[in-house]
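Morning, I've got a small favour to ask if you have a moment. I've dropped the whole record in just underneath, so have a look.
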Amino acid sequence: MKAIVLIIVGAAIGLSGPAQARTLEAIRASGALGLCAHPNSLPFARKGGDPSGFQVELGQVLARELGVSLRLDWIITQYQMRSANCDILLDVIADREAQGETRLRISKPYYRTGVALAVPSSSALTSFKSLGAHTKVGVQVGSVAAMIIGQRHVPISIFGFETDSLDAVSNKEIDAAAVTPTAAGYFNLTHPDKALRILDRDEGVADLNWNVAVGMVRPDDALREAIDGALERLRNDGTIDRIYGRYGIVLQAPR
């Protein structure tokens, strides 16, 4: 999906050079928290229309927790992140190495995700371990899942977007799709007549699992602490679960 490119792929271009900290005090003085998001990537975000995407909804409640409004900065890739002058990105991989080129500062994680298998409801597949030489799996081009599944000598079919591989599974063109639970959950919500079974992620393969956090562009300590505190409150009262749940996504606690 487009938002995966936006959110988790690091970009060195345009990220070099010093940038002054965007303080909590400055955000409150301006009255707005800036969120960078893709304008056309439901369920993540959408410019105009209803629903607006879970990133927009979560951004709004985070801003409210800080006592300000939300300002949306629409970008297509992370190359545009600095020029957009936003404060945060959502659904960022909570790993400093993964964010090395972006130089984002990471909040405490608020959920865990990775790569799962989406299969037809009638499929006999139960896990990644049940894949074999006679099961064809849809993977995204250039993904870690494509490499790992290919190394296991499982036939793969390459797709540009997760939605394309999910469509292929529902049309019985392939046996399974290696996708995020986010993509699979939203597919089931929007295609109730073609709903797929989502198999549990394999926590035994570290590269196919990760925690998710708020990425902060140039925060001071006060902003980082405020974001962490807001996330804890919103997790504890079920707000984050309810936001994602409206898009067919069941969140798992971070590890």
Q: What stands out?
A: Confidence is low (pLDDT under 50) at residues 1-19. The CA atoms of residues 128 and 204 lie 10 Å apart. The chain has nine helices and 13 strands. The radius of gyration is 19 Å.
